[in-house]
Amino acid sequence: MVPGILREVNPSSFTPRVVSIGPFHKGHTNLKSLENKKPKYLKELLLKVGPLYEAMDTCVKKVRGSIQEIRKYYYEMKTYTDDELVQMMVMDGCFILQFIHKLPITGNLFSDNRLRSRNIALDLVLLENQIPFFVLQDIYDLTVAKLRPETTLTSMLKVLLDLINPFEKPLRLENAGIESPHHILGLLHKFYKPNFKLPEITEIPRAHSIVELDRVGVKIMPNNKLTWPMEMEFENLKPRHKPTLRIPVVRIDNFFEVVLRNLIAYEQYFAVDNYVTSYAMAMHMLAATPADIAKMGKSGVIVSHLGSNEKASDMISSICKNVNLQDFYYIKPWKNIARYYDSYWPKNFGVFRRTYINTPWKIWRASGITSELQLYCTAIGALIFAALMLFADLAIAPANNRTAHKK
Questions:
Q1: How far is it, in rounded angstroms, from Cα 41 to Cα 62?
Q2: Does this model's pTM top 0.70?
Q3: 324 is in which domain, residue-wise?
Q4: How many domains does the chain have?
Q5: Which is deepest, 28, 32, 66, 293, by most CB within 10 Å?
Q6: What is the C-alpha separation between 189 and 145, in angstroms, rounded?
Q7: In this structure, are 36 and 101 located in the same domain?
Q8: CA-CA distance, 160 to 154, in Å (whole number)?
Q9: What is the DSSP letter of 246?
Q10: Residues β-bridged to residue 245
Q11: Residue 171 in domain
């Protein structure tokens, strides 16, 4: 399912580390520890709704009724019988629901328990580590819905997805919409959906990095007025205020890379809107170098846990490698940035500040306009010297007269 040209850039981003879900990675030796615990999770969940075997039989019959639809999700996997695939769906579905039910939703995000939970949650959003959403919904309706009728599967999964959401702003249920997603990763994708219609695009304006924008006086600030989680906006309307590019605050770490790579692979594989790909491309344009990352860090729009700015810029750059961008959801702010950058004053102010204010001694080594400055300075110096000599002569003359009179 993951396009080969994306997998070859970083295979580990698409490979589960702790738990396998569905048939693609089932049986991998490094995943056996949690695989052996799945029956315990299933038993804990089913015993809450009735006798174990009765509840199990009900779930199996429900899932078996959708076996042909399930096989469409795994058409490349011919090695499992219908019974084996049904048993796998029920086991994995019950594991996911019971795992979420037991989540430690409070405490330090980087405590041992939370880190373990986050690692499992990260595996549950890998593109090739999914079960169909309708299967999970059926099992949920037969189990959790009977215990907690006030909640929904989407709200329950939001607790899981909040663990691996790299953005500072939490996910919002209203962003998920009403249409059923393909799977858990598809639900995360819906949480990031913008609330506007993509404008018609003829071409993407030339990109400018954070350092380039800083040179022409653009201020970088966190976007705290988000209408969608990945929104960037450019403000240049307020008098006496610097033009400002607002960017959503994001945590740059290994989770960020895995989440974005799988969402992008999902967009490349399925016929869905590619707003996550757009975000990755926009970040690649802005954070082209370690210097850009450093300025973004100082501005508070990124929090990097990678140890160096070089690693962060390399990661953002590699995420976009071999990616096909069909639409660009930042066309409006990018056009406004290009219009501002290409205007006469900001462009020349940036050159002037970089050349003469930041390093004033360059004035005396420069050419062109600086040679005129040298000429003006020389002329002014000559005038000052002449004036001083004149004042000196005037001061000496009376003294000479007094000396002559005494004689």
A1: 19
A2: yes
A3: 210-357
A4: 3
A5: 293
A6: 24
A7: yes
A8: 10
A9: E
A10: 220, 234
A11: no
